[in-house]
Amino acid sequence: MRKLALIILVTVTSQTAWADAAGDLKNYLTNTQSLQASFRQTVTSQQGKVQQSSGTLAIQRPGLFRWIYQKPFEQLIIADGKQIWLYDPDLKQATVKDMGKALESSPAALLAGNNQFERNYKLRPLASSEGVDWLEAIPKQADQSFETVKLGFSQGQLTQMELHDHFGQTTRIYFSALKINPKLDASQFRFIPPKDADVIRE
């Protein structure tokens, strides 16, 4: 009897977490037009090597984002709705690619996309952990950059992402200082490379 009660409790808890996380994702897709946050990121290689970075981001849905790595090295990624620019000030190098080709190739692009998330991903519930309700999103097309994407919601807000790519790397992103639907200056989503920068088109 005790074992049966435990099974029922686990099942109900899992269903509740799934409902909460699914509802939070739907709420984000429906009600979030813009977003500002700070982030902390770790990338763990297949061999266990860890790289850490941090910075800020701004998103205007759909299709616009500004993702700035501030530590340990400065790097700027901007999407203007048509193109994605990646600029490295130390190397004085700017790489630009068509937005369509780069769609969903980065965490920022996932967050800044349109409301077709469920059309592109198969969703399944994961166990809640430390107050975070988790969803796993598996791309329906095999040519996506990531094998799986996990979305973590806390108190209705997206606070964590975990991405597993085809090279065995795991990227974990932790969001803080979230501002939902702030008024954003459109100029921050435009990028003009410096005159002395090498521009590489992909």
UniProtKB/TrEMBL annotation:
Q: Which UniProt keywords apply?
A: Chaperone, Lipoprotein, Periplasm, Protein transport, Signal, Transport
Offer one example of a GO biological process linked to this entry: lipoprotein transport
The superkingdom listed in its UniProt entry is: Bacteria
One Gene Ontology cellular component term attached to this UniProt record is: periplasmic space
Name where it's found.
Answer: Periplasm
Q: Which InterPro entries match?
A: LolA/LolB/LppX (IPR029046), OM_lipoprot_carrier_LolA-like (IPR004564), OM_lipoprot_carrier_LolA_Pbac (IPR018323)
CDD domains referenced in this protein's UniProt entry, alphabetically: LolA (cd16325)
- Assign the protein's first listed, main location to one coarse class: periplasm
Q: Which SUPFAM superfamilies match?
A: Prokaryotic lipoproteins and lipoprotein localization factors
**Pfam families xrefs:** LolA
Q: Where is the signal peptide?
A: 1-19
Family label? Belongs to the LolA family.
Task: Name the job this protein performs.
Answer: Participates in the translocation of lipoproteins from the inner membrane to the outer membrane. Only forms a complex with a lipoprotein if the residue after the N-terminal Cys is not an aspartate (The Asp acts as a targeting signal to indicate that the lipoprotein should stay in the inner membrane).
Subunit structure of this chain's protein = Monomer.
Instruction: Please identify the protein, giving its name as recorded.
Output: Outer-membrane lipoprotein carrier protein
Q: Which organism is the protein's source? A: Iodobacter ciconiae
